[in-house]
Amino acid sequence: SPTGTPPGSPPLNGSFVGRNSNWVPDDEVKACPLCQGAFSTVHNRKHHCRACGKVVCGSCSSARMALPYKGIYDKVRVCDPCKTVQESHAAASINEDMDVKQQINDSLKSELKKRAAQLTQVRQFLFSILEDEDIPEDHEDVEGLIDAGASKLKQMDASAAKERHEVAKLLGELAQLKGAKEETEKLSGRLAKRIQAAEADCQKLDEVQAERDRALSDLQEERARTDSLTSRIVRLENENLKKRANGTASRNGSRGATPAPQQATMATPLTASAASSIGNAFGAPAATTIIAGGLEDEPNENGRQSGARSAGAMGAPRCDGAEPSVQGRWGKG
Question: How far is it, in rounded angstroms, from Cα 187 to Cα 201?
């Protein structure tokens, strides 16, 4: 375009495109500063370099190029030195562009490798979930694999939803079991306390049983001593009976009288059971003898009758034929 500006860009100030603060007026220059050729209106006209703003001849400003840094995107006149500078800048820019492009290429390659790895992983995943479908590993229809995988995933989601429902049900049962466990533990605690109380009662009962066993043992020992004493009493009483019988017989023999059968004193040996029964009847294990149908106490330490119950006093018949009274005294016939 005549303005040298891209479409829609604002117009440049001044009558010349690319004019800037370094723009040199025509009337100040008489010869080309580059080749030193004098200007003329016919053979060597004046021209302005749009890059540096200097006035140069046509031979020294034959190059045309765009100046993007000045907002000029069409090719305009520049002098030879500015051309060299702009070309060097362009070369540097090209190198920079190449570097940028290389970086972009490297980034794209890396991203492509990542995408390829991801695609491989996706294929492996699809083959793993479609292992029952008998699909060959070199299958290239990725979209078909994706569709089949999506259908399989829906089935798996439905199965997972069912399993989640079962898990929720099991969790509810687990909560109930935990509650039952807590109740059982409470009951076990109460039972443990009752068992401890029962064990304490059993221990007390064992102590009472031990005390009873000791009492029974003491009672058996006392019974054994009582039986021993009873046997001794019986033996002593029997010996006493024999002595009394012998003494009576000797007295009757010295008198020269033969006692009548009813007047004879018949000594009956005292057995242990009889002595025990008599002792129980009178409230004490006193040794007694049966003489001529009556009871007579054993003499005490002073040789007297301890109970004052003689044969006559207990109702035994007298030799003169008199009968004892009810009170135990002898009355007359």
Answer: 21
